[in-house]
Amino acid sequence: MKAIITGMNGAVAPYVYEALQKQGLELVIWDRTRIPTDDEAAIRQFIAETKPDLFFQIATGPVEWLSHIVKVTEELGIKLIFTSTVSVFSEQGTGPYTIESQPDAEEDYGRYKRECEQIILNHHSNAVILRLGWQIGSKPGANHMFDFLVRSHEEKGFIEASSKWYPSTSFLEDTAKVVGQDALQYEPGIYLVNANPSFSFYEIVVRLKDLHEMDWQVKEITSFVRDDRMFDDRVQIPALFTRSSVS
């Protein structure tokens, strides 16, 4: 099988790329310097000439880019896997969320992902939408929780973490398996990907501190109260800290 993958400069796509490689897929990386996101003819030509079986849209980019991708992959019968986010739910609300929960975000990023989801649902008959939580990597230098914590401690000398906030989150390696392997078997639709059954953000930070043997000062706060966890029995992902996902 052959797949096109976008977003290789981000946090999630490199892990998905590795997971797909292990399955023996032939992978083609979208290079925006060669194929502009606003040129429908170039997009169509690239996808048609590549002839992929799968298209992994992991990158963020203009809504128009996604619209072109959706149109071409639908016409050519290519399965689309799109990574969305828990941020489609409003920061003013609280969960936990299920597949029946209605997206209501008005914040920029959440509204953008809501619009992307709707385009896919309206115009693609074989697409899997995966709503992801905050990803946990093992090294600084990318957009994930561990990097955020390292930078926060460097800037402030401590980390404030709420014991009243329950985020949706998962280790990147486990997320990559869902995106790059499990999702290939999913029926078209929306799926919620979260590995956190019960940990507060404070508990997660303390666990990561111990796992990485970091000399962090972690301050517990209770002023931020919210439950962002997503639950979906159809998605099988190891619960946080049930095994060592940190390399």
TrEMBL record:
EC number: 1.1.1.133
Keywords: NADP, Oxidoreductase
Transport found in the keyword field: no
Pathway(s) served: Carbohydrate biosynthesis; dTDP-L-rhamnose biosynthesis
Residues in RmlD-like substrate binding domain copies: 67-152
Gene3D superfamilies named among the record's database cross-references: NAD(P)-binding Rossmann-like Domain (3.40.50.720)
Top-level taxon in the UniProt lineage: Bacteria
Claim: Transferase is one of the keywords in the record: no
Listed SUPFAM superfamilies: NAD(P)-binding Rossmann-fold domains
Physiological role: Catalyzes the reduction of dTDP-6-deoxy-L-lyxo-4-hexulose to yield dTDP-L-rhamnose.
UniProt similarity note: Belongs to the dTDP-4-dehydrorhamnose reductase family.
Name of the protein this chain belongs to: dTDP-4-dehydrorhamnose reductase
